[in-house]
Amino acid sequence: MNVLVINCGSSSLKYQLIDSESEAVLAKGLCERIGIDGRLVYQKTGLDKEITEAAMPTHKQAIQMVLDALVNPKTGAIASLSEIDAVGHRVVHGGEKFAASTLLTPEVLKTIEECNDLAPLHNPANLIGIDACKELMPNVPMVGVFDTAFHQTMPKKAYLYGLPHEYYEKYKVRRYGFHGTSHSFVSKRTAEFLGMDLKNSKIIVAHLGNGASISAVLNGECVDTSMGLTPLEGLVMGTRSGDIDPAIMEFIAKKENLDIEGIMNVLNKKSGVQGMSGLSSDFRDLQAGHEAGNELATNAIEVFSYRVAKYIGSYVAAMNGVDAIAFTAGIGENVNLVREKVMSYLGYLGVTVNQAVNDATHGDEAIISTADSKVKVCVIPTNEELAIARETVALVK
Ligand code: ADP
């Protein structure tokens, strides 16, 4: 079965065509600057990347260009659109309505729309992508895979905020968590990779990308995660602050004469390791800065790693122990310095580091703790597109 995986944002759209039997990517790419000018990146596996600058005023036109590229007689990955058997859509926020992936029926789409309030930047864009695909491929089954679904197993004590209860009742203000597709994929793969029984395991997944979150997965179910109502809570990220004293908002707003939007912009886009270092949100730049003696870059790496270690400690408490810790996403998979710093706080758990393997691991699966380490620590590359394709096949078959 060929599954087209779509991750649609407000002005961009990422896609992959995956053969579900072999799990091979047949082609992938992205549309950028939708509604502005337009740029299609397309790559059939085994061939060079093609970049086409072309007007794509709407998402429907962008998806039409993707479909045209997929069936292009020279560089297409399939001969005709009838070879697309299903479409899997990433949907950011499923609120409390979706604890699992689901077929996108008209009723389901209405329910997703009801969650727009909770993710005003993301959900409407996801829905636009779904509508466009439905128009262009009316007979192809479509599935929604939610970032929040995996975390719906969190107990009340983990998801309620210390706020007046009426805000939960009236507006559903609670912790939801994000990156669920990745946390689910990586926790399952961790158990498999380490030969553990997922149903009888305590796993902590550290998804450290530009957006970063961490989760506690007990017997295969999420019991806590660091992102909240929005992806702003928790770890220090590329440009997001993560946890701060909420009173800082008023303090800075007054000093800098900012309104609430201005403050939110600072917390989402100008903070994190970018804001701390004044250098970059990218760990390649921060590492270079650190090696060149840039103190602010060093601070950013230290604060980032320390925050991860503190969350791990709190999730060990939440699960009354831990069997395995998995690092994933851009930083987790590639930056051995961050992994080393995080692990340096975990000696009390009986974590001992295999320094040579940790230093040599960049983007591959590996066990980076020693054979006699009490807690196994590993690197497990995430693959959200494959996870979406698998979920889609499971519902369509
Ligand atoms: P997202 O999907 O949230 O954009 P990713 O998981 O792709 O994030 O992670 C992107 C981040 O990972 C980059 O900003 C950078 O900090 C880091 N990263 C990716 N590759 C490398 C690498 N080879 N070396 C160091 N850092 C890397």
From TrEMBL:
Pathway: Metabolic intermediate biosynthesis; acetyl-CoA biosynthesis; acetyl-CoA from acetate: step 1/2. One of its GO terms (cellular component) is cytoplasm. PROSITE patterns: ACETATE_KINASE_1, ACETATE_KINASE_2. The keyword Magnesium applies. ATP binds at residues 14, 207-211, 282-284, 330-334. InterPro entries: Ac/propionate_kinase, Aliphatic_acid_kin_short-chain, Aliphatic_acid_kinase_CS, ATPase_NBD. Its EC number is 2.7.2.1. Belongs to the acetokinase family. Catalyzes the formation of acetyl phosphate from acetate and ATP. Can also catalyze the reverse reaction. This is Acetate kinase.
